[in-house]
Amino acid sequence: MTKVFKWGFLIVLALFFVVPLLAMARFAFQSVPVALLTGETWLKGWSIDPIIAASTEPAMWTAARTSALLAVFTIILTLVLLLPLAIVTEIKAPRMRPWLTALTLLPWVVPPIALVVGVSVTFRTGAPWFLASVFSLVPFYALWAMPFTYRALDAGLQAISARTLYEAARSTGASFPTIILRVILPNMKASIVAAAALTTALVLGEFAFASLLLKETLPTFMVNFQQSQARAGLALALIILIFTALAIGIVVRTLRRRGLNVQTTGL
Amino acid sequence: MRSRQLFSQTNSDTRIGLYVAIPFVLFMGLFLIYPTVAIVGSALSPGESGFSLIGLGNALSGSYRQGFLNSTALAATTALIGGVLGLTLAAIMRSLDRPRWLHSTLDSWSAVASQLGGVPLAFAFIAAIGTQGLLTKLFGQLGIDINDFGISPTGFWGLVVVYLYFQIPLMFLVSLPALNGLRKTWREAAALMGASPTRYWLRVGIPILTPAALGGMLLLFVNSFAAYATAYVLDPGGALVPLQIRFLLQGNVISGEEDLGYAIVTWVIALLLASLFLLTYLQRRTLRWTRS
Fold first, then answer.
1. Domain locations along chain A
2. How far, in Å, CA of B37 to CA of B58, rounded?
3. Residue B229: helix, strand or coil by DSSP?
4. B228–A10: do the CB atoms touch at under 8 Å?
5. What is the CATH number of domain A50-257?
6. CATH architecture assignment, domain B62-290
7. Is the pTM value of this prediction over 0.90?
8. Is A201 on the interface with B (CB under 8 A)?
9. What distance lies between CA A12 and its chain's CA centroid?
10. Which of B53, B70, B166, B266 is the most buried (most CB within 10 A)?
11. What distances in angstroms separate CA B287 from CA B188, B272, B290, one per listed residue?
12. Interface contact A249-B111, CB threshold 8 A
C-alpha cells in the first residue's frame, strides 16, 4: 500500500464521517435554503434561534425528563441484577461464567421489534397495567443494554483479578461483606461508571421500543417535533448526538487509560 | 479428607452462585424467554388451531418474501462493503505509527460512531443527501445528479450509505484485535524462508484473518438486519422486515394477520440465533491465534 493510497483513504473516510454532521449543523443553524446557497449567501442567516425554539418547547423538557429517569432506573436495575451476579460468579462460582456469557448475549438475538411483539402478546392480555406506564420500558432497556453492560462489569473484574484480591483479603481475615464493600467495589468504579454511561447513551438514543409501545421519550419526541419544526428538530438532534458522542468518548478514554479494554460492540 | 473438604467448599460456593442467579434468571425468563416462546408458539399454531407450519410458510410468501429479500440484500451489502472498508481502515491504521493522535482519536470515534445508528443519524443524512441536501446541491453544481446513482436517503443505495456510517467503525473495532494478532515474527519467519510478501499474505496472513473477518461481517449483517430507527425515519413505508413487523403489529391490516407477524418474528429470531452460533464458532477459530 502506498502512502498516497493510505492517506487518500483516510481523508475520504474522514469526509464521509464529518460532512453529514456539517450538513446537519448548516441546515439547523442557517436559515438560507440550499437552493439559494451561493458564494455570497453562505455566511448569511446563521443563528442559534433553533436551539432556543427547541429549548422553550415544554414537551421537549417532559420528554427529556422521561428519558433521564428511564436512564437512571435502567442503570439501577442493571446494577442490581448484574453486579452481585458478576462478582459472585467471578470469585465463588467461576463454573457459571460461560453460561452467563452466553445468556447475556441472548437479548442480542431477539431484536427490539421482535421483543415488542412478544411483549404485546404476553403482557397485553396478562398485565395490561404494566404496559400503560412509561417505566415499563425500564426492564427492556436493561435487557437490551445487557450485552454491553455485563461485558463492561466482567472486564472490570478480570482486570483487577478479583479472585486473587478476594483470597488475599480473606487470608488476612476480612469478612465477606468487608471484602465486597472495601476491596472489590472500590476497584470496580471505572467499569461501573462505564456500564452506567453506556446505558445512558443507549437509553437516550433508543427509538424502537418507545415508538412501538407508544411512549414519548426524547427520540420519539424528536421525530414528531422535526415534522412540525424542521430546523429546531435538527438542532435538537445535533445536540443529543454530540452529547451522546461525548459521553461514550469520555468513557472509552477513561477506561483505556486504566488499561481496561471494554468492548462496546456487544461481543 | 482434605480433598473432600475442598469439594464441599466448592459445592457450597456454587450454591451461593446459584442463589444470586435467581433474580437474574427470573428477570430473563419473564422479560425475554417468555415473550419469545409465546411468539414462536403462536407462530407454530396459527389461529389457535394446533400445530401447523402454514404460518411460517405464509411469512415467506408474497410481499413478505420481498421484505426478507430486501432486508437480506441491505444487510449483506452493508456487511460486505462495511467489512472491506473497516478492515482496510484497520490495516492502514496498523501500518501507520504516526501521527499518534490519530490512533486515539479514531479509537474513540469508532466506539462512538458504531452506536450512532438512530434518529439523529437519519436526520444528518437527509440534510446531506436528501433532495434539499448540501451534497446534492454541491454535486449538482458540478453537473452530477447523485440521484442518478440511486443515492437518496430513501433509496436502497442511500440506505447503504447511511448504514455504512455505523458499520465501518464497528468493523474497525472488531477487526483490530485480529490484525494485532498477526505477529511480526511470523512475517520475518516467512521472509527468512524465502517467501515473498504476496506469498506471506496468501499463505499466512489471509488464512489467519479470514475467520475474524467473516465473524466481523456476520456481526455487521445482524446489526443492520435488525436496525429499526434509521429505516423508520428514512423510509417508514419501506419493505424492510422490521418495518413490516411494525405494520402488522399496529393492526393496520385485517385482523387475523397477527399470526403472520409472529411468524415473521420467528424467522428473524431463527436467523439471528443461527448467526450467533456461527459467530461463536468463528470467534473460537479467531481466538486460536489472537490469544497471547
1. 1-47, 50-257
2. 20
3. helix
4. no
5. 1.10.3720.10
6. Orthogonal Bundle (1.10)
7. no
8. yes
9. 28
10. B166
11. 22, 22, 5
12. yes
